[in-house]
Amino acid sequence: MKNKIIVLGAGLVGSAITIDLSKNYDVTSVDLNQESFSKFKNHQNITTVQADLSNTNSVKSVIKDFDLVIGAVPGFMGYQTMKAVIESGKNMVDISFMPEDFLELDGLAKKHKVIVVADCGVAPGMGNIILGHHNENMQVKTYECLVGGLPVIREWPYEYKAVFSPIDVIEEYTRPARYIQNHEMITKEALSDTELIHFDGIGTLESWNSDGLRSLMQTMKNIPDMIEKTLRYPGCVEYLRVLRESGFFSYDEIEVNGTKVRPIDVTAKLLFPKWKLKEGEEDFTIMRIVIEGIENGEPKKYQYYLLDKFDRETNIISMARTTGYTCTAVANLILDGGFSTTGVSAPETVGMGKDNLTYVLKYLAERGVEYKIS
Fold it and tell me: Dihedrals φ, ψ of 95, to 5°?
């Protein structure tokens, strides 16, 4: 009997996850916006349900008959959705990138004897799986992850397109960036320490501090130096700094002609049309991970390089492929019995399994998402 999977959220990434899983499983997609289901018209194994996923009772109701839940809701809904899934006794793989600490739900998940893997995208996600693997097999000294998703065509003024909730994207520009240096946590403002870096096949990009390490700061305390930086086209950061310092990203209400509004809501409303990928527009995902340390008594350096582009055959954008297929790889790993740790796990825990990184890399390569390892 086929496993039944339900995907909560039918955005660009959620829909790619649904289509990929429907090749082998009966899949149900849930979203409030019925227009999101138009992507599934040529796929037989997909059932659609319209529901308000901001209501936890609604979440519990729609997932009750399923074996595995995929969380692909916006970040601000992620924590309450995961909690509802756990309380329903269902296994879950999640990509919502919630601002809260998902490991706080570990005890609840253990109580309900469920398997949950959070942050299971590209970064966080694949980078964590890679580091988890190497941390089991060597004494890691440094971990550096540079990552970005960008449009192929640079369009003034932002030269950027968002595939996630605009408020989730803006959160990257405001949340203080934390990294580890000499075993100490360093906190700087987001968009700080910009560097220009050349990448083969792309050219020069600008990196800046972002708060991407997340669970690694708790689970990898043995590693003295860890950092993640986000990549954008050169010059983009200056625009974002101006907006941030002018208050456009603030959550504090202001009064305008007698009406109270949050600047962040107005900004998101204005920017989303400019950031939205239009039909036929292409994107790419770039990630470079460097891990250095001691392996078998010798200095060792590993580099993982990903340059993935929009898939013209399937019309699926790169960020949806690289994020979504990492999620579906881990979902398949759980269904195949390759990962069975109860509780809420960070993706690096998945990487600690003996053959799990090989499994995930093979799964991604079969879908054209290939990491070059040197």
Answer: -125, 20
Q: Is the same domain home to 14 and 147?
A: no
Which string of DSSP letters, residue by residue, matches 146-172?
A: EEEEEESS--TTT---B-S-HHHHHHH
Spatial distance between the Cα atoms of 332 and 24, rounded to a whole number of angstroms: 10
What is the domain count for the chain? 2
Q: Is 90 exposed, middle or buried (0-12, 13-18, 19+ CB in 10 A)?
A: buried
Phi and psi, residue 231, nearest 5°:
-110, 135
Domain boundary among 263, 282, 309: 309
pLDDT in tens, 237-264: 998 999 999 999 999 999 999 999 999 9
Q: Does the predicted model carry a pTM greater than 0.90?
A: yes
Cα dihedral: 220, 226, 230, 235 (round 10): 160
Alpha helices in 259-355 (DSSP H): 263-275, 318-335, 347-351
State how far the Cα of 26 lies from the Cα of 91, in Å rounded to an integer: 16
Report whether 209 contacts 188 (CB < 8 A): yes
Residue 242 lies in domain: 126-309
- 72 burial via Cβ count (<10 Å: 0-12, 13-18, 19+): buried
Domain-ending residue, one of 286, 309, 332: 309
Mean pLDDT for the chain overall:
95
Same domain, 209 and 64: no
Q: Are strands 203-209 and 225-232 parallel, antiparallel or unpaired?
A: antiparallel
User: Do residues 187 and 93 both lie within one domain?
Assistant: no
Can you tell me the distance from the alpha carbon of 97 to that of 82, in angstroms, rounded to the nearest whole number? 11
- Contact of 5 with 67, CB cutoff 8 Å: yes
Q: How many CB atoms lie within 10 A of CB 167?
A: 19
